[in-house]
Amino acid sequence: MRVIIFGATGKTGQYAVRSALDTGHETTAFGRSVDRLNAESGLTLSRGDVFDAEVVADAVAGHDAAIVCLGSTSLKDRTTLTRGTEHILGAVDRHSVGRLVVVSAAGVGESWAQIPMSSKLMFKTMLRNVFADHQAQEEVVRASAANWTIVRAAVLSDKLQRRAVTASNAGKTSRIHRSALAGLLVDQLDDSTYSRQAITVTS
């Protein structure tokens, strides 16, 4: 499968690129600074900005699937996730891409009841703009005709030892290692279990 990964130079995006390559997918890494990634067999580097709809559309052409790992640019940013995803959705529709997997945050929508009080406090204060952007991002994904899955990730960690993943819209969340999240994102490319659904994941 040919997959394009947006936000490929971010912490989660880099793990997603590695996971996609390791599982045999022809992988395109899209981002403004993809030149930081090492060239290797099976990997195409596509330099661009998700705010440029035509550049995004050109990059998406010829792919079977897309993974969206976009991150906010600052704590004041309320638009990057939503606007970037809107442009990706437009490209996915234009080029009839068969699968779309989007990273969101545990706590968005009905998953609010699943997160700990510490996360709720952060989302109401320091991370309120990021949280609002994730909410808007999910709304545009849900309104699309794409074959999407939204993956709501628990608090992300690069140090957590436990890599097993629990996917549930009922259980409580704690943390999840970025590599474990990335593996689950790539697994969704060939798995229709959560097609046009949002699922919360934690370790």
Task: Outline the structure in words.
The protein is an alpha/beta fold and 203 residues long. It is 33% helix and 23% strand. It has a single domain, classed as Rossmann fold (3-Layer(aba) Sandwich), CATH 3.40.50. The strands form 2 sheets. It has an 8-stranded mixed sheet with strand order 3-2-1-4-5-6-10-8, sandwiched between helices. A two-stranded parallel ribbon has the order 7-9. Helix 1 links the parallel strand 1 and strand 2 (26-31). The radius of gyration is 16 Å and the shape is globular. The mean pLDDT is 96.
Compact summary:
By secondary structure, this protein is an alpha/beta fold. 33% of the residues lie in helices and 23% in strands. α2 packs across α3 and α3 runs parallel beside α5.
Defining key terms:
about 200 residues; alpha/beta; Rossmann fold; 8-stranded mixed β-sheet; two-stranded parallel sheet; 6 helices; globular
Report the structural category. Answer: alpha/beta
Number of helical segments with 4 or more residues: 6
Question: Strands of the biggest beta sheet: in what spatial order?
Answer: 3-2-1-4-5-6-10-8
Give the SSE order as H and E letters: EHEEHEHEHHEEEEHE
Flag low-confidence runs.
none
CA-CA gap between termini: 27 Å
From the spread of the alpha carbons, the general shape counts as globular
Mean pLDDT: 96
Q: Helix proportion of residues, in percent?
A: 25-40%
**The biggest beta sheet, please?**
8 strands, mixed
In the CATH hierarchy, what is the superfamily?
A: NAD(P)-binding Rossmann-like Domain
From the 3D structure, determine the CATH topology. Rossmann fold
